[in-house]
Write a structure and sequence with these properties.
This protein has about 220 residues and is of the alpha/beta class. About 20% of the residues lie in helices and about 20% in strands. The chain contains 5 helices and 12 strands. The protein has helices at about 60-75, 115-120, 135-145, 170-175, 220; strands at about 50-55, 80-85, 95, 105, 105-110, 125, 150-155, 175-180, 185, 190, 195, 215. The protein has a 6-stranded parallel beta sheet, with helices on both faces. A two-stranded antiparallel sheet has the order 3-4. Strand 9 (about 185) and strand 10 (about 190) form a beta hairpin. The longest helix has 14 residues, at about 60-75. About 35% of the residues are buried. The structure holds zinc ion. Zinc ion binds near residues 190, 217 and 219.
Length: about 220
């Protein structure tokens, strides 16, 4: 691993995430990791759809990244519809709301199959908190993308035990484009990929935020086992 010449300490960002480029302020340039749309084309011969998955632990910025992509589609004058499971009422009933309070209007649905009925003529379908839907979501995303739509799915890739969550592993396998975003470990400052539950509840789904979960790296997640 390269050594930071200023301090002699090892950089916290793993080398595989570091492009080597620096911004004017000396920070690592992350723009090279940013997802760029393959095209916004809508010509008749250009009707191929696809699936994008944005995954990661809690506090990793999944929803922020989903909103960024959907806003770009809106700027490109595309018709966008956004859905989230009805059970996720942590912030607001009708908005996809991320932690930085950057919001975008969404439709809460109880079942994944409702998304098929409600997405109509739109170009882009965004789905947030996808891990809470059942496996019907896999067929729904397949049908939408086969019908020429761009489908952007954001969700937790792993549950509080570090196991693949709901339909996410299938969607990760089927997607054309996968982005794994990372949080920062609250214990040691390394890159975090796990959602550590602070309570003793054993249910797979326990809604909560920083009062119930913290982002942890592999070492800190498994150290209490
Ligand atoms: Zn750690």
């Amino acid at each position: 691993m390269p050594v930071n010449s200023d301090t002699g300490s090892k950089p916290k960002v793993p080398s595989f995430l570091n492009t080597g480029n620096k911004t004017s302020k000396g920070h690592p340039d992350k723009t090279n990791f940013m997802f760029i749309e393959p095209h916004f084309g809508k010509s008749p011969e250009d009707k191929a759809g696809w699936i994008e998955v944005i995954c990661g632990s809690m506090f990793s910025g999944k929803t922020e990244e989903l909103i960024r992509r959907l806003n770009r589609a809106l700027i490109a004058r595309q018709q966008v519809e956004i859905f989230k499971p009805k059970m996720d009422t942590r912030y607001d009933d009708t908005n996809v709301v991320s932690h930085d309070e950057n919001t975008i209007r969404s439709t809460p649905v109880q079942f994944a199959t409702e998304i098929l009925l409600l997405s109509g003529n739109c170009d882009v379908v965004g789905i947030d908190e996808a891990q809470f839907f059942n496996d019907d979501l896999i067929e729904v995303c397949t049908k939408l993308s086969n019908a020429g739509k761009r489908v952007i799915v954001a969700g937790l890739d792993m549950d509080f035990e570090g196991k693949p969550f709901g339909p996410m592993p299938y969607l990760l396998a089927m997607a054309e484009f996968v982005t794994k975003v990372h949080a920062i470990c609250i214990k040691c400052g390394n890159v975090a990929t796990y959602s550590y539950r602070l309570t003793n509840q054993k249910d797979k789904v326990v809604l909560g935020e920083s009062e119930k979960y913290e982002a942890r790296c592999r070492n800190c997640f498994f150290e209490d086992d």
